[in-house]
Automatic annotation (TrEMBL):
Residues 26-132 form the Mannose-1-phosphate guanyltransferase C-terminal domain. This is Phenylacetic acid degradation protein PaaY. InterPro entries: GMPPB_C (IPR056729), Transf_Hexapept/Carb_Anhydrase (IPR050484), Trimer_LpxA-like_sf (IPR011004). It comes from the Bacteria. CDD domains: LbH_paaY_like.
Length: 197
């Protein structure tokens, strides 16, 4: 992975974390064990500190950044969907940030909350645990049910498994020129989209 020091601040990645080779880490970035950092994610700790705690995932093309003397923190088992932008915010334990959502400075997303895809969470916004946020600007729509939190937790477990799969078997190769007969499929997960659950 492209990893850069700036003014002697070097990213830290636990050996049990997986960071895709195209992800970029700069400066004051700390990634704990069992984390997954996806392709083309950018964690740019050149002003404030970025902390990704145990079991969290930051998916493809996400951007994480902060202002000077501000931290951007993703608590344990935080789940950051494809293309999301986090800037100087605090994502609570086991919370889910939907695809292409934007979470601004000093916002605090409560534990086990869900921010809908494409939502825009304003600076300094705070929500209690188990909140469903949606809209632009985002507002609290309701509290999440036990079933919804369980669905989210199961989804994050799939990324824990993906971290292990990537550490064990992901490798850069040349693609095939033809589809092989009886091409296999990935079948080791019963996890389904929420609308099918």
């Amino acid at each position: 992975m492209p990893s850069y020091a700036i003014e002697n601040l070097v990213p830290v990645v636990d050996p049990l974390a997986y960071v895709h080779p195209t992800a970029v880490l700069i400066g004051d970035v700390i990634i704990d064990k069992h984390c997954y950092i996806g392709p083309n994610a950018v964690l740019r700790g050149d002003f404030g500190r970025i902390v990704v705690k145990q079991g969290a995932n930051v998916q493809d093309t996400c951007v994480v950044h902060s202002f000077p003397e501000k931290d951007c923190i993703i608590e344990e088992n935080g789940h950051i969907g494809h293309g999301a932008i986090l800037h100087g915010c605090h994502i609570g334990e086991n919370a889910l940030i939907g695809m292409n959502a934007v979470i601004m400075d000093d916002a605090v997303i409560g534990a086990e909350s869900l921010v809908a895809a494409t939502a825009f969470v304003k600076s300094a916004f705070e929500c209690p645990p188990r909140s469903l946020l949606a809209g632009s600007p985002a507002t609290i729509k309701r509290q999440l049910s036990d079933k919804e939190v369980a669905w989210k937790t199961n989804g994050t477990k799939q990324y824990h498994h993906l971290t292990k799969r990537c550490l064990q078997s992901l490798q850069q190769i040349e693609p095939l020129t033809e589809i092989q007969s009886n091409r296999p499929r990935f079948t080791d997960s019963a996890y389904k989209p929420k609308h099918e659950g």
